[in-house]
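Quick entry, no commentary yet.
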Amino acid sequence: MVHAFSFNYHSRAYHFIWDNESGSLHNVDYVAFLYAKVKYDLPMSQQEKNDFDKIDKQEIYQLEEEFTQLEQAGVLNSPCGDYPTSKRIGEIKALCLHICNDCNLRCRYCFADEGTYHTTERAYMSEEVGKKAIDFLIANSGKRHNLEVDFFGGEPLMNLKVVKAIVEYARQREKESGKEFHFTMTTNCVLLNDETIKWLNDEMYNVVLSIDGRECVHNAVRKAVNGKDCYSLIAKNALNFAKVRGNKSYYVRGTFTAKNLDFASDVLALNDMGFDQISIEPVVTEIEDLKITKEHIPAILKEYDRLAENYIDRRKTDKWFNFFHFMIDLEGGPCLVKRLTGCGSGCEYLAVTPTGGIYPCHQFAENKDYYMGNVFDGKINLDISKKFAKNIVTNKPDCANCMAKYYCSGGCAANNLNYAGSMDKPYDISCEMMRRRLELSLAINAIEGAEQNS
């Protein structure tokens, strides 16, 4: 499959041809760009059709030869490969531990219903449950050596004593099991202090700091339990952590809603504060004044373009930073199987609730229809695993002709189910954003590469 797209960087138009199957990106001039659209029957504007009609026939003949050579080399219009149609089940590599179904913030858009996961009890995980979860992971990890545990909530720092006990226990089990644990935590930063920062820096492989960008944006939708604004405290604590963290893995993760469609300003504000690893995600909610609708998409796509231009500029200065959705490695990125199968939810990756219940991922937690078992009996419902094993992009007809299919894996299973009605049907609003983010990632990769080689 061939895809053609453009990106304007400081009024200069860059044109690209992307071969979906081989992963080859071609930076071409406008004439070759138009020829590709005609040759591969791609959508064209009336202006592009008029411009193509003006191209000299000799030039078209030369392009025909060049494109034929690229096709013969396997880097253009490559045939679809023989890809897997199921995820592997039977070996678990990662658990998301819901340390508590409680939170010290009341974020309006929270998918977990303010940390409760739609339960009546704000339950806290005990040391016993946490240790059983570690035992369960080891027992079901097969030949895998590296295991991952993510401490999640609610707000996991509200149950830090248990988090520390679980880490200590896992370190003990490492020696006798021959496994190696990598821990991560997602925190809203409210409870970060010097002692906690030091411990997290020592023990966590990665830490996700939850901040929504500018102060006015954050405070508009993320209040403390008492209804007061908390941005200044969160920002101060997060910055202290980032300074201590140095070159170790972390990133700031925010959410944009219909209230801040100028979210590029939030990314840049976080960078101005001193953060260099940033992600801002579109909200997924049905709350009327916050939800993203199809009417918002044109403005959102333009905003991603604005962000991409600023991104390239800043990465040439002392304000260099990574934006999660613009990071792409065309040479040594994730293997194809990983890109086809996605996050591994329900198969390689599971979530454990405070009482020990096992679910396909953190977004399915406490959903009775997707209850898979309990860490105390150590068994899981493989029928549910088999459903998730089939939930990959090669089994989704709506994804067959999408240029981004090998990079989004057909979208988030939970979002697809909740907002498109089926895990097998992609949530179309997220699809449009994903496609433009991938185009921009490719353009950034090409532009930065050309500048480095010039």
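second:
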Amino acid sequence: MSNAPSQQPHPQHEPHASHPDDQARTTLVTLAYGAMATHTVAAALRLGVFDRIGDGRATADELADRCAARPGELARLLRALTGLGLLTEPEPGRFALTPAGAQARSDAPGSLHAVLQLFSDPMMLRAWERLDDSVRTGEPAFDTVHGTDFFGYLAERPALSERFNAAMSQGSAHTAELLPAAYPFDRFRTVADIGGGDGTLLAGILRAHPGLRGILFDRPEGLAQAGPRLARDGLADRCALVTGDFFATAPEGADAYLLKSVIHDWNDERCARILGHIRRVVPDDGRLLILEPVLPERTGPGDDAISYLSDLNMLVNVGGRERTRDDFARLCEAAGFAVRSVTALPRPNRFSVIEAEPV
């Protein structure tokens, strides 16, 4: 037997073995850094990073003057954006947009630039700092932080209201592409989009169904960009713009009434008022169509976290909530409607069409 020293590594020098808690720690640290990621993206938007890189490649030195930033610090931001999956570094020090980063451009097809601006705006983020207060009280923290409710705040700030409308338009664009093929709108004569903003969703339906007419119903600030939008799409003569408040009335003359991303903004009592006004004007053979995410009755591991974060966002900023199918059925029944079907749009879209008929 050899007397040579053993060549086996000392335990303290052994490669680190994966520990069962490693993934748990990584998950928690990633969550702890989550707000920092949001502010990183917000800073990039304010500096115009995504627009200035565009279709090409750029170094921090090349971007610094255009972004009014220091090259060294801008390089640090670019590396962080690369780590977040929004940029790539195809060669050392030179950066390009990934497909996700391209959608952060203001001029890109399918852009979510305005959505990112809105959800990273201090107006919304400050209320999140008091999420625990909203959980304790059931009341939106936004009102306490800003001294008024969310939509009242927007109404007093036209530029911010326009940004909100742009974000809602961008957020509806994908649904506007999918919805006309997912539901038989050709059975109707006129569709009224209640709280329809600039008409992005209704325009998608009207383009797909040339024999259909539309009514776009919203408050003045909601309709501010609707006229030019419908005119660009050649739909101005097929769609009436009606100004009003869905808590006070609903427009007559339609046989389908559409609500997208409206019901989740409000508590059950206020939803009942909205649905009640529609029930008074919908014909017996008409339909109510609600477009919202539908939460499962039971939460499972791996479920889409965005829907649950949206639920909390509704709580802290506007006092609303996301709902299950049973929740929607109860709301509709109380207003004189019966839910007949729930049809999920193709993934990755998170919306479903909840069809209800008057009873």
